[in-house]
Amino acid sequence: MSPIQHLRRTAPRLQSLLSANPQQRWHSGPLYRNTPKSESSPADVQSSQSSENWQPPNSGKPKSTEPNPHRDFYGSFGFPVLKVALGSIFTYQLLYWGWLKLESIDEEKTKQEQLVDLRQQLVDVVKES
């Protein structure tokens, strides 16, 4: 199905969704997925609670005061490690390309030598007959 045919098939459904009553539209937020819009929004509920009692939600992970050795290493040496890795990839690709170029030159030279040899054999066969 071409993209134009797909748009022609879905356009009537999109129009009906867009022209629907705004009170009947569905929220697409992560907390309110597939729930109809109600009179009181979450902002109204949150503002009705006193700000003195409010506490941020617990993420479930305890905060560690110990430094992470991996984070410290890559924080200090991440860029040099990246430079060495990219430099080695570049060097490998450069050497690979050079090797292919030399190999193609060698193959061409070998073919030319074979062609000269075959011509000489042809000349010898013609002289004998």
Automatic annotation (TrEMBL):
- Domain of life per record: Eukaryota
Q: Where is the composition biased (Polar residues)?
A: 16-26, 53-67
| Region called Disordered, residue ranges | 1-70
Per UniProt, the ranges with Basic residues bias are 1-11
Q: Where is the composition biased (Low complexity)?
A: 38-52
Name of this chain's protein: Uncharacterized protein
